[in-house]
Fold each of these.
Amino acid sequence: MNHLVSEQNMTHVLEVGLEELENDNPNGLPKVKGYNIINGKLALASDNSTFESRNPALLSDCLGEFPLSTKEDVDDALAAARAAFPSWSATPAPTRGQIIGNMGRLLMKYKDDVVRLETREIGKTLKESAGSVQEAIDTCLFFQSEGRRLYGQTVNSELPDKELFTYRRPLGVCGIINACNFPAAVPFWKMIPAIMCGNTCVWKSPQDAPLLSFALARIMHEAGLPDGVINLVHGKGSGAGQYLVDAVDEGKVDKISFTGSTAVGKMIGEVCGRNLVSASLELGGKNPLVVMPSANLENAIEGAYWAAFGTAGQRCTSLGNLIVHKDVYDEFLEKFMVKVENTSIGDSLHNEGVLYGPMLSEKYAVDFLTGIQMCEDSGATKIYGRGRISNDNKPDGFHGDASEGVYMWPHVYVDVTEEMECFQEEIFGPVVTIVKANDFDHALHLANASPYGLSSAIYTNERLEAYRFKTGIKAGMTGINNSTTGAEAHLPFGGVKGSGNGTRESGIWVIEAYSYWHAVNDELSGKLQLAQMDVDEIEIEEAEVDYSSLA
Ligand code: UN1
């Protein structure tokens, strides 16, 4: 098999097998008929049911219709992944890595188109979509060469003429379920190490990013991925996603990797737990950011503002509780609010320099407004924000026609205390809850007081404070004089407490999540030697010197 991609099969991803449906999209962009990809073939839902993907910045723009996959479709995808496993796991790891490298190079080639598609489908700014696609590219380039490592060890035996080894072995068929906020980076965080280790996958695309997921899956195939190694099924969480989880109980899945809410993650963890199936769970966060008096205040304001409102607050690493020391509280808040009040919001495809665009979809808007209601019910004081942006209710920095998309005001709540529900619970969207801290110990206490432990940050110029924060915080990730977001593709990503089950994405650490250790011993002596029992014992000799006499 030639794994290098020839010019002929580098057809543009969106030209491959996609029929254009009749549409009245106001931007003139196509509405396509979307497909699952099962065993390398395009497939519709077995009952022909579909759902639509719409541009959240321009709701009248429909990207396409996609299969609302049935249990039968998910089972077909699982069967294809199972059938592809023996030959894929036997393919030399460096060859698997070469295909992964091709994926990265193809993504570089198509980057501009993929970025625009991501922005069209989920409304992220072009700059941020480019970041997400770059993170997928970085992941491919990193794991291309991991395919040349995937090291095991040679280990000394306690017996002569015997060798011990360890090998990494693939788990089998992995079910991949990701959220739509990082629709390129996060599925690549999961599937690239999964296939590098020799696993095969069934990927349930996020219901709000099916076209982007389809394009990425096509690129993976163009890169030389054999049929059946990654199978894509579209659908909704309670449909195809649930069928994939149900299949764990049926013995058809060897691993689930999930990014999403803590509630769903716990349910998946229970199903996997009772079947002794490995689960990677990357869940919610209520990420704290502490500002101490010694901090460079401008820098802290910049970092807190970006962490709270960049991506319209729709990262799992977004800032939740902003914890400001009382000595700098007033000055910080005043300057912070100037930035908030000048926030530029709009469709990034038509307005340069906006900080954020729409919510990822209508569903995220509904959930966000419930979160805002929670802040009100908690008794926090709102100092900025008026819910959903409309043409009659818009901040000065809003650009465009608000009735076209799903936009939210930035929201700021103060007088927040740790007893409040809005301090304890994640709210996915542009809101920050601000808490005043009396001193460093109080700030650290507050930073640890929510049920989550994903990301965290501190702004300080006291080295000892930074050290104490780093050692005292219970979180998977910490920024020192940096925002809570912005993890790089080769550091371990994940959380503790309610933010996950301790597994990690990215870098060499993620390999643990997609392989198991196989210990092999090779007896060369031609006879049965019993470990522990046939081992030569070396006696301790009687001491010739009385050491106590020397002291
Ligand atoms: C997520 O929101 O699920 O660290 C991922 C960050 C990004 C990834 C976020 N690199 O904010």
Amino acid sequence: MKLTGAELLHLRVPLVAPFQTSFSTQLERDLLLVRVLLDDQEGWGECVSMADPLYSPEFNAAAALVLRDFLVPALATAGDVRAGTVAHRLTPFKGHRMAKAALEMAVLDAELRTVGMPLSAYLGSVHTTVPSGVSVGIQPSISALLETVDGYLDDGYVRIKLKIKPGWDLEPVRAVRERFGNIPLQVDANTAYTLADARHLALLDEFGLLLIEQPLEDEDLTQHAELARRVATPICLDESITSAKVAADAIRLGACSVVNIKAGRVGGYLEARRVHDVCAAYGVPVWCGGMLETGLGRAANVALAALPGFTLTGDTSASGRFYRQDIVTEPLRIQDGHIAVPTGPGLGVEVDPDALAAVTVSREWLPLDT
Ligand code: OSB
Ligand code: MG
């Protein structure tokens, strides 16, 4: 198929409540979407980068630039464009995995719609629903935290993840354990600690957490391996895992015993499947992370999370966890603690033009021959 059009959309979507992590407090999702036309069949991609380079080196303005100046022109001159070869076409350009992932996702959506195949079937998914976990931001107080967690448990979420940072770690975990007992519970530090904190992090061991996610910096694989020897709680990597190769290295080094897979972080859903395959070969459980996606990215994540190696509950929450008004016509809903895997062709969800217009800051057609 031929790339006959590509459009970038910049959105600002209000969040239902502020989302605080060790690296930022967000009140809205500043978001980049990619819309492609392949032989005039539309496809949508969602870029997981944020407005600022605080979670990853990528950020929205840079992703827009690299898509406009390099990635989209490379596909436009490639002749036949197929999802399975997009990553190969973009290999000459270093890094920028989130931007590449968004473009590949849009091509996947368009291609699968032309053949009537759901993304889940293309990826090899084996489940029709996936369990739904929720990521709970850092709260202004312990009482606010307990109230927030209580609300999510009421909604039916089957696993709680608490964001932690130095000064907000033992106390919130203890409070949640004391109040809610032995619920499936894990924590995410988003690189906020150093190896010097090993003894402190080992104090989390008594709480029986499922895992500690990304305690140290992205590039600290050896230090994570050292930390893993000093704490009993399993170490899970998020930011560090940028490809299937890095996942293999991290596992071989003993840097992690669990992997969080985010398609955007590794360059797309096809590389995400390879990360899943590598982890499965090593017997390492994986789960699907989230990046405050709208229904588009959420639908694709749920399809990915339905692969057989996703044996841990992911941050695959309902649209309503972050957004009062999603941009898709059928927002993803939690039912009995699970989210249904979309069954329609491509992403299996449709953009609601009015809802999209209400949060769109700008749209730009990209030149295809520069
Ligand atoms: O580290 O998993 C993370 C959100 C933005 C950036 C990084 C992370 C997160 C989350 C929320 O934890 C995941 C979600 O539910 O979308
Ligand atoms: Mg994380």
